[in-house]
Amino acid sequence: MKNVRLSRLIKVSLLSVIGFLLMYIELPLPLFPEFLKIDVSDLPALVGTFALGPIEGVVIELIKNILHGLFATKTAFVGELANFIVGSAMILTAGFVYKNKKNKKSAVVGLAIATVVMSIVAGVCNYYIFLPLYEKVLHIPLAAFVQLAQKVNPAITNINTFIIWSIIPFNFIKGIFVSIITAAIYKSVSPILHEESVNKELAKNN
User: Fold this and answer.
1) Is the dihedral of CA 91, 72, 172, 117 positive or negative?
2) Domain count of the fold of the chain
3) Which of 1, 107, 117, 121 is placed for a possible disulfide with 93 were both Cys, Cβ 3.0 to 4.6 Å?
4) Is residue 34 part of a domain?
């Protein structure tokens, strides 16, 4: 039992570090303001969620953001808080859908629902939590976000349209992108993450 727990702890720690490192790789997207850059740092947490469970996935998401906050933050932890909450919305949704029925179809359905949930959570939380925190902690006026976004999308004229035309679609695209990669690589990495389950089964049979 101790070996199993230690194995899970090592895997959670390793996936957290990989997620932290992936946060350094950011790509801009056309039609979105330059401060919205896509990354795949939620990928290790999603893989961990399917292999180990949704709670472990959230822990991976938490450790990843704590590490980034300690070593690389440019937003006084506000960006990391946003990444954690929005990422966890996707992790928990996909994880619990998959947990009820562990098969490929359930994983795909879970990722699809999770992408929608993440986009909505991102929109609501940006409006009520993250953008006000940026304004209060970093002294960035909300109008600055609107102005930057308006340069690439004239339809954005205020904070409401900024949420509708930038935040929500950006996170929707990010969710699709991360989901596709997760579905593509999970089959090849899952045997490693499930190794302790295989060993337990072999021990029972011997």
Assistant:
1) positive
2) 1
3) 117
4) no
Token pair 């940026």: residue: 134
Q: In whole angstroms, what is the distance from residue 35 CA to residue 33 CA?
A: 6
Categorise residue 158: left if φ over 0, alpha if ψ from -120 to 50, beta otherwise.
beta
Residue 50 lies in a domain: yes
Q: Render the burial of 129-153: b for 16+ CB within 10 Å, e for the rest.
A: ebbebbbeeeebeeeebbebbbebb
Residue 205 within a domain: no
CATH code for the domain in which residue 140 is found: 1.10.1760.20
- Domain encompassing residue 194: 2-23+39-198
In a structure prediction context, what are the per-residue pLDDT tens digits for the chain, which is 206 residues long? 678 788 889 999 999 999 999 999 999 999 899 999 999 999 999 999 999 999 999 999 999 999 999 999 999 999 999 999 999 999 999 999 999 888 989 999 999 999 999 999 999 999 999 999 999 999 999 999 999 999 999 999 999 999 999 999 999 999 999 999 999 998 888 777 765 544 444 344 44
In a domain, 183, yes or no: yes
Write the burial class of residue 206 (CB in 10 Å: 0-12 exposed, 13-18 middle, 19+ buried).
exposed
